[in-house]
Amino acid sequence: MANGLLDRVLLALMLAEILYTLVQFTGDRIDRMRLVEPFLVIGLIAAVRRILIITAESAGRFSLYNPEFLAFLSELALLSLMILSIAWAIRLVRR
User: Fold this and answer.
1) In terms of pTM, does the model score above 0.70?
2) Secondary structure class of 25 (helix, strand, coil)
3) Three-class SS of residue 75?
4) Burial status of residue 86 (CB atoms within 10 A of its CB: 0-12, 13-18, 19 or more)
């Protein structure tokens, strides 16, 4: 019961933060770029965290011929591409 309530409160806080950022986007371009960078860093941290969780969960659990192992590999590949694209976006924002 408390776990579901905590999830809803955290979701409400995330939505409020996103709405606040969207309202702040009406400023000039430099301020907008400064607002985007923290979200990119958070996304980068979340993607790295998910990669660590996937590798910890699948360590020694699957054989190479298991179809679930291929699903883990594809998720790792997509997360790696996401990390590269977010890192590139951070570099562009900092210019």
Assistant:
1) no
2) coil
3) helix
4) buried
